[in-house]
Design brief:
The protein is built from 7 helices and no strands. By secondary structure, the protein is mainly alpha-helical. The chain is globular and about 45 Å long.
Length: about 150
């Protein structure tokens, strides 16, 4: 058992109940199609922690499923957040990037991912965040509001 148990909030339960009350098979089918890209089945690459004996002897833990190395899901999230943080003032932006870099480096240090898995994950996350900007229109007039950037 994990050391910390997180229970759903009242809002979580209300939202789940509302979805349950108003969903149908077609809604579920569309949602399944849209979420397919986030599932692990897209790429099979063996994690580095499965290819080392000495690492485990020295304390390297096993991570996730054996063939789910590419790309790093942690890095996808960090890439999206780092891309979004590019809109912040320099001090906050640099802090977000430093924390994100530290987090994704742990994935390589723990042998959960190859370095290329992390780089690919960062790129995927950043591209997704930029695509969301195009779709939502977020930041279109940023150049006129902040010409110093």
């Amino acid at each position: 058992m994990a050391p910390i148990r997180v229970r759903p909030t009242r809002a979580d339960i209300s939202i789940a109940n509302a979805i349950s009350d108003h969903t149908d098979r077609s809604t579920e089918s569309v949602a399944e199609f849209l979420t397919w890209g986030a599932d692990e089945h897209m790429f099979d690459q063996e994690r580095p922690d499965r290819r080392t004996f000495l690492g485990h002897w020295r304390g390297v833990p096993f991570s996730g499923e054996r063939l789910d190395a590419f790309p790093s899901g942690h890095a996808v999230h960090v890439g999206a957040l780092a891309s979004a943080a590019s809109r912040l003032p320099a001090k906050q932006r640099n802090l977000a990037w430093a924390v994100g870099a530290g987090l994704v480096l742990t994935r390589v240090v723990l042998l959960a991912h190859w370095a290329s898995d992390v780089v690919a994950g960062l790129a995927v996350g950043a591209v997704l965040e930029r695509m969301l900007r195009l779709v939502t229109g977020y930041g279109r007039d940023a150049a006129t509001r902040h010409p110093e950037r």
